[in-house]
Every structure is written in structure tokens, then in C-alpha cells.
């Protein structure tokens, strides 16, 4: 995969009246990359995408697509295509004419249109429905027509605005896999908007986590998950136990009356600084107190606590623990250990709680 | 079961109403169209086709053609004026949408006849417009506006344009705006997007509006009577004359039946098209 630059966004801002929807964002997307914009409702994801497509003109800043500045190029002259959240299929045209729409506007030769539409239909596995009208199709099929209609033009960049948002969970998971496979096959740069963190984690090469018009963190899924830069990211992607503490010494943070080893703590912190630590629930191991250690291993940091409540999740249990120092911690336990794991814990039962020190994430 | 039988009773008053006041007169008109006029000028039932032969004689065919021609021109003008208006209100009216639609409807609270008289006052040789342009010295003599096809068609457009705008407004308002963006995204210029996306998507409104304007316009007599002259005589005037001036009710009936059949053909074509569209939606 070539690593040239497909999109370069410099200091882009979009205001609607006094309201700042997108606030001074810089981004670069390499060609062939699967790039996700992830964030809560109203954070400006769609606005970003619409500026890339040309439906909104940025208030300030510049957009460069494949080396060409495009802020003032109208949508029909940009070599990008969009998959709309509502699909926006043309109901008066059948599936193949929907797909051929862009090629016809570009005056591509008839035989070539036929061939490319056929290929696109095959790619999205709809060859048998070529002459159906959009309203005769299922939600997943309509979604694939929308995708084919955009892909057939071989755009430099494909913009997708929550393309799977209208599908039910199962179909969504299936389409995620298909979409990712298609992206690998065609090698087109995808800019993918979603507010589903799991979707973003499983599909993206990189994720830009957005909040209130700004990009909070832009990194690979592993990085965003394992090393969230801020409390917002730690809370938005997965759930996190947040601990407020003070630097005790190098690599040590005092939280209440316990001292945690935090190897992640770098030199920029000095003794006495306040820091915020996050621990993912699935990193927290819980053992019965008077039995031999089962999940807690030697180099883990351990504290005492008791079970405060338990929620059965099917794939595991979500335990809320009250620690001996009064703090609270959520632990996610995989149901791989006992036959009937939910019989194992009793409310109020004293337990040992532990985690690897390197799983303490330092937030800014 | 019982409940539905109970509700069935509500059909009968309406059915009776239509039978008495619609079907029976229609049947009488049909019957009379095969009759003739007696020596006293009264219509007498009979069975002869002379009235129908008269309809298609050389005197009246131009009137029929003119009526259809005027109606078609009226439909086209209503579309040309109504589409941009409806489009603007539906897409850019924002919170003023309903107020703007109401503002369009309010003039139509005034009786059609009265509104047409207002046009007489505007267009007459001594009317507002001519007085103004003569006073301003733009022309020496008043411009002939009344008694021209221009005046008659103008009156028809003014009289019926609301029947075009309302269905257009509804179908433009119902259109998903993102398909227009999709058209542009797929390399359609604004004009191409309008032709290939917006027009087809709003076709139900265009069809409904055209039918709603065409039907009453073809049979209209008010505009031609007040704003026109002998050269702009329409089939509506012809029918009206048979019943009120010439007292040839059988011939008037035959004209009416021919008109109705002609319109029915259009109506059937429209319904077939519309129901096909409906089937696609379902
Ligand atoms: N045309 C507009 N006029 C005024 N405000 C707008 C306009 N478009 C978007 N906004 C505002 O900008 C903000 C960001 O909108 P945007 O549609 O980009 O959010 P989003 O991140 O896509 O949210 P969602 O996940 O709900 O789709 C919102 O607060 C919205 O109200
Ligand atoms: Mg959005």
C-alpha cells in the first residue's frame, strides 16, 4: 500500500452563526487508509465529512485532496464520493441505474459503464437484483447499493456517514466485516463516521476521537484503547475506572491511603502533582481471599476489597468492588473459569483485587 | 362482525347522495344528448346522433382544439411559475413555510369571478395598466390586452395556479433533500441534478398538479367570457350558450358528453400512472 497523502486538513473551522461545529482541526489521512471519525452525537463528524464532500464551505482553514486545495470546489467537481446515512438512493431508478448514475454524468462510454456496473454489483453481491427498484430491497441490500454507487466511480476518497447506523446489530456486524473486506480489495481511502466505538476499533487503521468540534486523540485503535490521552477518550471508548491521585515519587501515585505503582508515569510529572489514572475493568482480576491465587499473578499490584454488586452479562460478569480504602472499582470477568460463574460470588464477600501496574493509564 | 355491519350503514347516505345528485343528472344529460329540440325550443328525448355529428363539424372543432390548446398552455405556464415558487417555499422557506403557503392560498378565498373581474379592471383599454403606460408616455395609445388569448390564458393561469402549486409543494417537501446532494456528489451539475434527480422525484406532484389544472381549465368559461372575445371562445362558453342563450339543450348535452369522455381518457391515463407509482412505493 502506497503511503502518499490522500487528505490534508489544516486548521479547519466551521461555524453556523455563532455556533462552532468544527473547531480548528488538523488531520492527515494517508491513501488507502481506513480512517474513522468517532465521537458522540453533535460533535461535528457529519459536518467534517460534508466539508470534505463539498456540501459545506469551511469558515476558515484548508482542505487538500491528493495535493489539490478544494475548499471552493463544488461537490460535483470533487473526486470523492459519499455514502449517505439515509443511503439517498434514487427511487425512480433501478439498482443498476442508481449505480451507473455517476459514470453517466461523467460521460463514460456505454460499454464501460455496463462492465463497471456489473463489477460493482458483483463486488457487493447484488448481481441478481440489478433490475430491482431500491424500495424492493432489504435494508442491508440498500446499504450495499449505496456503497456500490459510490465505489463504482473509483473515487480517491470514499466518505461514509454512519453507513451501518440503520441496520440491526447482527446485520451491522456482518456488514462491518464485508465493508472492511471490500475496502481492502479496492484499496480506496475510507473516511468513516461512526459513533459506535466497537465499529471504529474493529475496522479502522486510525481513529480520530472527536468531542465538541475538536479532535481529542488521533491514533491507531490499540493506541486509543490502551493509551487514551484524556479522560474523555478513556470514558468514551470502553469504560474505565478513574482514580484521582498525587505523585508520591517517581513511578508511584498515592490514591487515598494506598500507593500505586504506575510505570507509565513519565518525567514530566513531579512529586505532588495531581494525576488521573485509569484502569480498564477487564484488566482487573478478582480472587477469593482465603483460597490460593487463581487469577491474580505474582507481579500484580493487589488490594483488598469486597463484592458490592454483580451484573450477569452472559459473556461474563461485571463486578462492582468496594476497596478497603473506600474506593470503588468495576471489574469485568470473563466467564471462562467456573461452570456457573454467577454462583461464585456473593454480595459482601471479601476478595483480593489485582492488576498489572502497566495497565494503569495516565490521563492528561 | 356486528360492529362492521353497523359501520357499513354509514356508506348509504353518501352513496344515495351521489346517486341522486350526480349519477341521475349525468344520465339525464347523456339521454338528452341523443334527443332533439321541438318547435318550442324544448329538449325532447329521442335517439339520433345528429348532435354528435354537429359537435365535430367545422364550426366547432376549432373551438374544441382551442380549449385544449389554451388548457395545455395554462398547464405549462402554471408549471413554469409554480415549480420555482413551490420549490423555494419547500426547500428554503424554513419556519416561514406555512406562512408562505397560507399567503399563496389567501387570494383564492376570493371568488374566481370576482378575481377575474379584477383582471378586467387591470387589462382593459381604460384599465390600470394602460392608463399607467399612457400617462407615463411609454405609448401613445392603449395596448390591446383585453380580448386577446394572452388575457384569457393569463386569467386561467391566475385562476387555477394554486392547484398546481399545492401538490408540487407537497411532493417537493416530501422529497429527501439528501438525494439532491447525492446527485451532486455523483458528478451531476446543479442543472443535471435537477433534471435527473429532482424532477423525477417530484413527478407525482407534477402529474397531480397538471391534471388538477387541466381538468377545470378545459371546461372554463369565465375567463374567456370576461377577458376574451369571439376569437378566444372556448368549449365552456359554447356549452353555456347552448343552455342559456341558444336553448339547444340536446346539443349542449352532446358537447358535455364529448368533453367528459375526452377528460375521462386523460384521467384514466393519469390514474394508471399514479397507481403504478403507488405500487412502487409499497
Ligand atoms: N446547517 C446547520 N445549521 C446550524 N447548525 C448545524 C448545522 N449543521 C450542523 N449543525 C450543528 O453542528 C453540530 C454538529 O453537527 P453534526 O451533524 O456534524 O454532528 P454529528 O457529529 O454528525 O452528530 P450525529 O452523531 O448525531 O450525527 C450540531 O450541534 C448541529 O446542531
Ligand atoms: Mg452525523
Short description:
With 364 residues, chain A is α+β, with helices and mostly antiparallel strands. Chain A has three domains: 5-234, Rossmann fold, CATH 3.40.50; 240-278; 280-358, OB fold (Dihydrolipoamide Acetyltransferase, E2P) (Beta Barrel), CATH 2.40.50. Helix content of chain A is 24%, strand content 35%.
What does this structure look like?
The complex is a heterodimer of chains A (364) and B (282). With 364 residues, chain A is of the alpha+beta class. Chain A folds into three domains: 5-234, P-loop containing nucleotide triphosphate hydrolases (Rossmann fold); 240-278; 280-358, OB fold (Dihydrolipoamide Acetyltransferase, E2P) (Beta Barrel), CATH 2.40.50. Helices cover 24% and strands 35% of the residues of chain A. Chain A has helices spanning 45-53, 95-105, 110-123, 139-151, 169-186, 197-203, 221-226, 231-236, 341-344; strands at 5-16, 19-30, 34-38, 60-65, 68-69, 80-83, 157-161, 189-194, 206-211, 214-219, 241-249, 252-255, 258-261, 274-279, 285-288, 301-312, 316-323, 328-334, 350-355, 361-363. A two-stranded antiparallel sheet of chain B has the order 1-2. Chain B has one domain (55-281): Orthogonal Bundle (MetI-like fold), CATH 1.10.3720. With 282 residues, chain B is an all-alpha fold. Chain B has helices at residues 2-8, 11-32, 50-55, 61-92, 97-105, 112-123, 128-135, 149-174, 177-185, 190-201, 203-218, 222-227, 235-244, 249-281, and strands spanning 36-37, 43-44. In chain B, helix 4 packs parallel to helix 8 (149-174) and helix 6 packs across helix 8 (149-174). In chain B, a hairpin with a 5-residue loop joins strand 1 and strand 2 (43-44). The A-B interface holds A 53-55, 74-77, 80-82, 84, 86, 88-93, 101-102, 105-106, 133, 135, 149-150, 153 and B 176, 178-179, 181-190, 192-193, 196-197, 200-201, 203, 280-281. The structure holds adenosine-5'-triphosphate (ATP) and magnesium ion. Residues 45-46, 161 of chain A line the site of magnesium ion.
